[in-house]
Amino acid sequence: MDLKLKGKSVIVAASSKGLGKAIALKFAEEGAHVLLSSRNEEELKQTVAEIKQKSGNENVRYETCDITDASQIKRFVETAIERNGKVDVLINNAGGPPAGTFDKFSDHDWQAAFELNLLSFIRLTREVLPSMKESGAGRIVNIASSSIKQTLDNLILSNTFRAGIVGLSKSLSQEVAEDNILINTVGPGRIATDRVQELDEIQADKQNTSYEQIRNKAESSIPIGRYGEPEEFANMVVFLASGTNTYVTGQSLVVDGGLVKAL
After folding, report:
1. 161: burial class by Cβ within 10 Å (0-12, 13-18, 19+)?
2. Tell me: the pLDDT tens digits for 237-262?
3. Where are the strands (E) in 93-233, listed by range?
4. What is the DSSP letter of 262?
5. Are 165 and 120 in contact, with CB atoms under 8 Å apart?
6. Closest CA to 28 of 191, 180, 231, 246
7. The pTM is what?
8. Which end of the chain has fewer surrounding CB within 10 Å, N or C?
9. Strands 9-12 and 252-255
C-alpha cells in the first residue's frame, strides 16, 4: 500500500528514543522529510544517524526543542517550514509525567505535567495549523496512553492530561475538517519501551518483587500474550498520518494487544 508520504514534511516531537523514534523511522522508510526533536542533542544526533542508516533516507534532520518552552516550539516548526516549505504532518508526543497517587503531588507537579503533556500539544498544533490550512491538507496525530480508554493505577497525572488530549483532538477535528486536516489520538498499551520498563520497575520495588515477575504478570493479562513492539505502534500512527487515511478523524484508538476491555 502506498501511504503517499514520499516528500511530505513531517515533524515528530520527543523523538530521540522510544515511540517517537520508532514513528520517525517509519516515516523515513516511507520517504518523508522528517524533523525530529528532543532536549538532548547527543541522543538526537545518534538517532538521526541511525534512522538514515536504516531507512536510506537522507532527508532526516533534528532540532533541539524543549516542548515546555513556547519559543522553542515556535522555532522548531519554523525550521521545518524553512527547510520544506510547509508542514504536512505533526506528531505530538511527550515523555510521561511521574507516577504516583493524588496525595503525592503539589501544584508545581500538576503545572509541570500540564505544560508537558497537554499545553505542548496545544502549542505545537497552533504553530502548524496556518501552514496546513494554506496548503489545504494536514494530518495531526496525538500520542497519549491507553488511559484514554481505561485509567491506570498510580498514574493520576497521566490519566488527567491524556483525557484532555482526547477532548482537544475531538473538538479541534471538527473545527478544521473543512480544511482537510484530520486529527486523531493514539494510545499505546504496554509497548516495550524504556518508559514501560521504568513503570514496571517501580511496581516491582513497590511490591518487593522482581521486574521479571511484574512483566510476566502484565503479559499474562494481555490477550495477545506479550508486550507490543514500538514499530507495531508506529504502523498505526503513520497510517493515520498518511495520505491513505482520508476519512478517519476525531478518533481515539489504542494499540494494546487487546488489553483494554472498556468499550
Report:
1. buried
2. 999 999 999 999 999 999 999 999 98
3. 138-143, 181-188
4. -
5. no
6. 231
7. 0.96
8. C
9. unpaired
